[in-house]
Amino acid sequence: MAQLTNRRSFLKSTGALAGTVFMGGGAIAEEEKREVKNVIFLVADGMGVGTLSLTECWHQTRASQSLEWVQLYTQAGVVVSKQDTASANSMVTDSAAAGSAWGGGKRVNNGVINITPEGEELKPIGVHAKELGMSVGLVTTTRLTHATPAAFLASVQHRKMEEAIADQYLVAEADVYLGGGMKFFRQGERDLITKFEQKGYAFVDNKQSLKLNAGKDKLLGVFSHDHIPYAIDRVHQAFYSGLPNLVEMFEAALQTLEKNPNGFLLQIEGGRIDHAGHANDPGTIVHEQLEFDACIPVAMEYVRKNPGTLLVVTTDHGTAGCQLNGVGNAYRGTGEALAALADQQGSFEFMAEDAQGRGAFSSELFMQVMGWEAWPEIEQEVNDKLGIDKDLLARVYGKHCAGKYLAKTGVGWTSHEHTAELVDLLSYGAGAERFPPYLKNEDVHHILKGLLKRG
Ligand SMILES: [Zn+2]
């Protein structure tokens, strides 16, 4: 790889690569040509290396092959970097600060989007791309106004200002917005959807209408009130069958964005790997990671067919120290134990929402989802805490199931919080050689911006 990089830089310095034409001994640069036309930026939010390794092992036991992510390591032309994910005020970042480092190019405090501790407002990379005449797309399984997509297009003092973020989206006019979070677009008197439609957006809210409208000039898809339900629940619950998955949203976004001859910047976020980590929910995190993984071959094919496209595959931080641990004598029972993960038929969040809806913990549902008899301590604590946020209630399930899960499947956790671990950043296609083996999250912004420069 090092040799290839050197050869590329050598060719570049002699002007022998595309972009420069030799005529009669002199060199004339092609005008207004960017080194990179399109950027596809895939984010597996909150994916620590243990989550990747767990999913890889599970996938090996089920499909007898490696994850697409793992296959990238052996793919010619893929550059593998390690990324330091710290924020301005902590070694452990949150998604707002991590996204701002990529989006705005400077480290900010946790919780803040694209405003530095000194008060400087950073121009998000998506706004920059629009100024260059490119199209921009944000696609996520979280609320559209969640921190990671927001950091490519918005600036706010706190990530919780999600109505303000949605308002900024209307002004920024990205060409594609696909995700969840209707409550920040249309609720009560507030109706941003109509305002988007007045600006020429085709609005869609289910899988069918997404398919029909893919390729329209501007696309707004909001598929759920809050985050889009987890992949494991979409698979097992028939009433979620109208929801698109991440790959379907990705493909629809490409159809719209690729119409622009000036290229595009597209962020695709598997945003709920992080949430499953916070909840310490093993079956759910594996399904989230697998759904994200299915985006990688779509992106790789696009890059191969469309020279001038850069693909970045990365994560903003690890979450909760998910690990597959050895089970049994000389760990020989690990594979068999791991297979028990398939018994889980729904997320902890799904059970938490059900308990909140019916006003009590359901032993019957717990049995259906987990295949285990419930026990008094979990029932008691869930019933005591029914009024808290559903993501916090999901953690109660995670806390009580942790010991049993560890013994049964080998999957364990270090906390319910983010981690400081170094994470992967993989790049492929146009400009991939610009990513060094080790970088800070804010470096990513400057590399992308350099590659988008004209001339
Ligand atoms: Zn998180």
UniProtKB/TrEMBL annotation:
Top-level taxon of the source organism: Bacteria
PROSITE patterns: TAT
Stored InterPro entries: Alkaline_phosphatase, Alkaline_phosphatase_core_sf, TAT_signal
Keyword annotations: Phosphoprotein
UniProt keyword Phosphoprotein present: yes
Pfam families listed in its UniProt record: Alk_phosphatase
Phosphoprotein recorded as keyword: yes
SUPFAM superfamilies attached to this UniProt entry: Alkaline phosphatase-like
Family: Belongs to the alkaline phosphatase family.
Name of this chain's protein: Alkaline phosphatase
Organism of derivation: Rubritalea spongiae
